[in-house]
Every structure is written in structure tokens, then in C-alpha cells.
Amino acid sequence: MSHRRRSFVDLPEDLQSNVFLRLPVKCLLICKCVCKYFRTIIQNPDFTKAHLTCPRPITTETSRSLILGLIDKSKIPHIQCHDHLLSIDSAGEIFSSSPISPPIPYVGVLFLVGSCSGLICFDVRISLLTSESNFLLWNPVTRQTRYLPRLKNRSKCVCRITEFGFVRETNEYMVVNVIRSNVSCNIEIELYKMSTNSWTVYCNTTIGKLITPVGPRFGLDQEASSLFSNGCFHWLTRYSVGAYIVSFNLKNEELGLIKAVHHGRESYFSHWKLAVIEEALAMIYWKYNDRCEIWVLTDYRVEGSWVLKFNSSYDFILHPVGYWKYDLMIISMENEYCLLDLNAGDGERIPNMGSLVLRKFCSFEESFAPVRRLL
Questions:
Q1: Sign of CA dihedral 67, 193, 205, 151
Q2: Are 194 and 373 in contact (CB under 8 A)?
Q3: Could you check whether the bond before residue 77 is cis, i.e. omega within 30 degrees of 0?
Q4: In terms of pTM, does the model score above 0.85?
Q5: How far apart are CA 272 and CA 243, in angstroms?
Q6: What DSSP state is assigned to residue 267?
Q7: Which InterPro entries does this chain map to (predicted)?
Q8: Helix (H) or strand (E) run with residue 339 in it
Q9: pLDDT tens-digit series, residues 270-291
């Protein structure tokens, strides 16, 4: 009597899902075309969420990806943006660099806001000086795009800082605008939620009055990297008594203040900025031609739990753009941008930069995340 050989489709559904979870997105796109049964498994929202968190080995198919938000200032006043996607292997070496742009018509300038869980958010403006924006979501894997609804009756503001975030516990994508009103120094929060497809405006007069207006950025410093840690966005500000960090909790939708490493370091170091290291809040202090220190907040609930992680001296002019991941920091050096290995002390030049200026950077991970909430 002959026995039919068992195939992959004969396995229980949970084992099939387990196998699919370990495949890169490009392979899953092929598997979706095999049959309707595979397509149903892969398109399940629970599978999409689980695939984001499942660890996979770093190969050329699942490389670490870094998005660079670049501006060409050589054509001022007609500023142009040129965003690039870098693929980086497990040794921290760049093996590919390619331009990226959503396949949808737009008028004006396309500014990178950030990337979370497979989606990229852009701020589309008529020009650099206008405050009117259209926000665009794009998934490069599924090629889906969508403009977000505009906020009606918005108040005029002096400056706006925009971030894009994702709360894994609630599977919620959010766009956050931090603004200062023309008529006061108060901070206002404009918050978009994908679950409701609508905007909400919050006002916080307490923190808003404490922050000293410094130029057009009212004391808040928008960093090149997306500073998201412990479910909060963070911005650096400076008081007359030292440096503080303003936070906005996406889950609780609340503003807060965190004391920096310790007051007095600003008198020695000429520059400092925020960073996120292994999901922990960090601060980078440096002098251009002297040394660099990186401090990490080990316990987010304890204000003074800062620990020194890196302390290095350099014989060249150093300007950190921001810490990325895997002990790699993007620096500007001799009119070029490099990825500096903080452990080895050597750097690799980022290719195809030319006259471009790095405005913002963020990580990118491929996913099947939809650009609108699934019903």
C-alpha cells in the first residue's frame, strides 16, 4: 500500500505560521501568490504584528535599514529633498544605498517625518517656509499610500515639530505636532490617531510657560533622529538653571519633564543632544576637537539614574549627528557624513551625499502594515 508523502500544507496552521514568521517580507510576498490559504495566513493582522517582533538573522535579505532625510541646499531658495535608504550588514558596513520616493503625485517639498513598524510618514509642503502641511503615509513593501485628513481650524504657530510614532500595546500609529502659539509661549499638541482617523488638540500651559523661548524653536531642540523611548517622544530644552528633557507619552497623551545628566556639564562641553540607545534615553556631550561622552538613563522612573556608557577622545573635528543603533553613530567630519563605530573607533563614509545635508534619519523595518486601520 502506498503512502502519500506529507507536505507543508499538511502541517497544522500554527506550525505554518511559525515558519512564515521567520521569513523576510520579500519571501512572504512570493508565498502570498502561491494559494489563497497562504494569503489568508499572511494577511491576518495578528500575523502582521507578530512578524514585526519575531527575531530573524541579519542577512542581505533582512539587512538593517537606515533612512536618511536629505536636503539639497545648493539650489536655495528652491530647496529639494532627496531621501536615501541604506542597507547595513551585521558588521556595520554599508552594502547598498538607493533613493526612495513614494509612487504618488505631490506638489511642493517632501520632508521625512519618520518611520515606524513598516510605515514611512512624510510632510508635504508647498515650500519650506509655509506652515500648511499634508501628511502622507507610505508602505514601500505593499506600495500603499494615503494622505491623512487635514486639521481644521488650526491656530497659527511660530514653530512646529512633527514626529511619527507607534504604540505596540494598542497597535496604534500616531502623528504628533508640537507647536507654540503666536499669542503665547504655551505648548500645544496636535495628535492624529489612525484608529479614529482624526486629530485632537491638547494644551499644556504649565510646561509651556516654563520653557524659555529661544529663537523660532522656543527652546525645544528637534534632533536629527527620532527620539522615541519608553513609549514617549523626547525633546531637549534649556533653562537658565540647566538642561531639561520634555517628553510626550503617546499612551497616556501627557507631557512631562526629565532632568538631564546633571547640571554643570554644559559649562565644559560646547554641544549636547539627545539619543536613544537600546530603547533607553541617552545624552551625547562633545567638544569638536576634544572628547565625546554618552550617558544612558538606566531607569526611566528614576530621574538621576544616568550612567556613562562611552567616553572617547578624538584627534579630528567631530560633530555627532546622532546615535543610530548597534553602537553606530552618524557624524559629520570634513564635509562628509560617516558611520562611526563607537567600540572600534573607526568610521565608514556614507556614499552619494555630494552637496546634500542630512536633516533627519530613522530606522526602517519591512512589514505588511496597512496605511489605514483595518476594520
A1: positive
A2: yes
A3: yes
A4: no
A5: 10
A6: G
A7: F-box-assoc_dom_typ1, F-box-assoc_interact_dom, F-box-like_dom_sf, F-box_dom, SCF_F-box_component
A8: strand 336-341
A9: 677 888 888 888 888 887 666 7
